[in-house]
Amino acid sequence: MQGTSFGIVVFDQVEELDFVGPWEMLRVWNQQAHGPENCLIVAQAKAPVTCAKGLSINPHISFAACPQLDYLLIPGGIGTRKEVDNPVMLDFIATQAKHCKAVLSVCTGAFVLQAAGLLAGKKATTHWGSLDRLRALGDVEVAEQRFVRDGQIWTSAGVSAGIDLTLAFIAETAGDAVAGHVQFYAEFFPDGKRYGGCEHRPEAPAYLKQS
Fold this sequence. Notes:
The protein is 36% helix and 19% strand. It has 211 residues and is of the alpha/beta class. The protein has a seven-stranded mixed beta sheet with strand order 5-2-1-6-7-11-10, sandwiched between helices. A two-stranded antiparallel sheet has the order 3-4. The chain has a two-stranded parallel sheet with strand order 8-9. Helix 1 crosses helix 7 and helix 6 runs antiparallel to helix 7 (176-186). The longest helix has 18 residues, at 16-33.
């Protein structure tokens, strides 16, 4: 994908695995199977960002300096509760999305997409703990699935689900063989073990109860 740019937005209190999981899959795709040439970590300012669990990261580029992206991913985390009211963030996402081939979110990143006007009338999902909050917005068809695609918009459940989302996106974009190569290199083969009967908890999402 020579010349293709994939951007991942970060912000204070972003959930680490929400963006690091997809980042890993994208970079494996680039290095092993000619994935997007440019993978950028983008933030409102080019300054250190403190994540939800304490990790500090350095974005590659600011919103103002960011070129038009082909693909955009918005992770979640407690910081999204602030970012849904951040006009600079929402304008950046809405403006980029007009020309993106696909826009993706992980976990509560779905709320930022909704605030940017990208989920109206769309089918989407989010972290199990925020499904009812997403339903309450009234303009989103909420699906309790590991990940959901509705046109150019992709959303996933929480945290580790972003890896599944990204592999599915790679399969759709580059084919099953490429996605399989990325999956094999990364050894992403969850064993399906459920600990402590978590699938029986009343708040467990539908996809977990059915698996």
